[in-house]
Design brief:
Chain lengths: ~400, ~140
């Protein structure tokens, strides 16, 4: 645990150094696993020492201390095995580009051989510089479980060649997973994902990386309006736009425009464009649904068989169809998804919304209740129960008059 | 201090004290009151220093058993008799006594239902067994 006085140290700045230092160690030929452990120890040491004795070059300080740990570890291992003592020169921190290091490390942590849960945990630790305890808290698992997950992931990377370019699509997916995991405890994972995505955009020209950053920013901007003071979900059409973070929206739009100018749209850019149109509407009634539908058309066109390969996009498009061509047309679109999504709460929730738009309140109430039974999130379940009760109450009032 | 689970059920347990429809058929204000009460219980337990954990379960259930060597697990998703127990969620509490656990369970059961009347839902009170080093000889 980090105690209060050392908190005065700028932890954000400290954690921003992690990728550079770690990448330097690995590039020099250190084992990923050992280097990451050594750096964690160096970080703890920094938190202890720096408030009193701030270093002149923090990155070089961390590299030196981590290297000393690596040498110590190697020495004790050597002694244990009565092997020849290994000696290592003190590091000469290379003047590598910070962006390259981030990208290199993200490729290591998002290695395709690792499970998504491991990729997420390793990325948060090795690139984000979070402690195991912090990551464990964020995912509501015991620290020992998370420690084990991380060390197994690092073991799996042992002996893998880590010098080839990795799969950027996997990195983007991992960052988006971190974003959607939300926030709990002291660590706000959504913010952390945005920070990492921002670092990634400095490292690659790939427009999809900027698309992802824009998507996160444009959604995150609405977060303060998404729940009321009692923790109840507030749907987009009822949100107080005054609570939206205009600075984040402005940054998101700017990042999105720079990505779109490359003329190579991918799914994150398209989803960000849709989010931007929602952010842009002065009120729910002024939402530019035809434009949103046009983007959804592009989104479903990215896959050969969208119903199976990207049902979420088809479902989102059905809502847009409902607003542009009428609820009945929207409901017909959802019919195509019955086989694939018929057991998911979101499918029933969308149908509830479309039935309500159509004025068919009994059908809406039934669909919302079906959705509530399938929800896996307490806030969403409660919201859907309320929607069902509200639709029924309005219907009763209507038939009584 | 002993720990207890206060279990809520989707179905099962003794004959309901009085029948009530599913919550999505209640008046919206009754739904609000009911949900607010659930939050209030968690807050109260935390304030008292009695709170350990609270979780809710989805109503979907699969029974699974070993299918034998080289065979897939055997599963069944139902249908199950409507009388079979189905746990909906729980509070885990750490309290001074069984009496206190019963008192809290009764309070949970006083949650408002349709018309704001107490729901009188049956709460299943289960003591959690200890797992601790034996510091004294068993009698």
């Amino acid at each position: 645990m980090i105690d209060e006085p050392t908190r005065r140290l700028d932890e954000g700045a400290l954690r921003a150094l992690v990728p550079r230092v770690l990448a330097g160690l690995i590039r020099r030929g250190e084992d990923f696993d050992a280097a990451e452990d050594a750096l964690q120890e160096a970080l703890l040491e920094a938190l202890r020492v720096w408030p009193e004795h701030p270093p002149r070059d923090p990155a070089a300080w961390l590299a030196t201390v981590a290297t000393r740990r690596l040498v110590d570890a190697r020495r004790s291992e050597a002694a244990r095995h009565r092997r020849e003592e290994a000696t290592h020169a003190e590091p000469q921190p290379g003047a590598t580009e910070e962006g390259d290091d981030t990208l290199f490390l993200l490729f290591c942590c998002c290695h395709p051989d690792l499970s998504p849960a491991s990729q997420v945990a390793l990325t948060l630790r090795a690139v984000g510089g979070l402690t195991t305890q912090e990551i464990a808290d964020a995912f509501y698992v015991p620290e020992a479980t998370m420690a084990q997950r991380i060390s197994r992931a690092k073991r799996a990377l042992r002996g893998r060649r880590l010098d080839q370019p990795g799969d950027l699509a996997v990195v983007l997916r991992v960052l988006y997973l971190i974003y959607t995991a939300g926030h709990a405890g002291r660590v706000d994972l959504a913010r952390e994902a945005i920070r990492l995505a921002r670092q990634l955009t400095l490292a690659t020209e790939e427009p999809e990386a900027r698309g992802l950053l824009a998507l996160m920013l444009l959604n995150h901007a609405r977060l303060p309006a998404r729940f009321d003071s009692e923790g109840r979900i507030v749907t987009l059409d009822r949100q107080d736009h005054g609570l939206w973070d205009t600075r984040e929206i402005a940054e998101g739009v700017r990042v999105l425009q720079s990505a779109l100018s490359v003329q190579c749209p991918g799914r994150y850019q398209i989803e960000a464009a849709i989010a931007a149109l929602h952010d842009d509407a002065a009120s729910a009634e002024e939402t530019d649904w035809p434009q949103i539908l046009a983007w959804y058309d592009d989104l479903v066109a990215l896959t050969d068989d969208p119903v199976r390969q990207d049902p979420a996009a088809v479902l989102g498009r059905a809502v847009a169809v409902g607003h542009v061509r009428g609820p009945a047309a929207g409901l017909r679109e959802t019919d195509r998804l019955r086989e694939v999504l018929g057991d998911r709460h979101r499918w029933h929730a969308v149908r509830g919304h479309l039935h309500e738009l159509d004025g068919d309140l009994p059908a809406a109430a039934t669909a919302y209740a079906d959705a509530a039974r399938r929800a896996t999130d307490v806030a969403e379940r409660d919201h859907l129960v309320r929607q069902a009760a509200r639709a029924r109450a309005v219907d009763t009032r209507r038939s009584n008059t | 201090m002993p720990k207890y689970l206060l279990l809520k059920h989707y179905r099962g347990g003794p004959e309901p004290h009085h029948p009530y429809p599913p919550m999505d058929q209640w008046a919206p204000e009754d739904v609000e009151a009911h949900m607010a009460f659930q939050h209030h219980v968690s807050e109260l337990l935390e304030e008292n220093g009695e709170y350990v954990d609270a979780q809710a379960l989805t109503p979907t259930r699969s029974w699974v058993r070993y299918g034998g060597p080289d065979a897939a697990p055997v599963t069944t998703d139902g249908p199950h008799p409507e009388t079979s127990d189905l746990v909906a969620g729980w509070w885990m509490i750490d309290v001074d006594s069984h009496e206190r656990a019963v008192e809290l369970a009764a309070y949970v059961s006083s949650e408002p239902g349709p018309g704001g009347e107490p729901l009188c839902e049956w709460i299943d009170v289960r003591e959690v067994m200890w797992e601790r080093p034996q510091t004294t000889e068993a009698a």
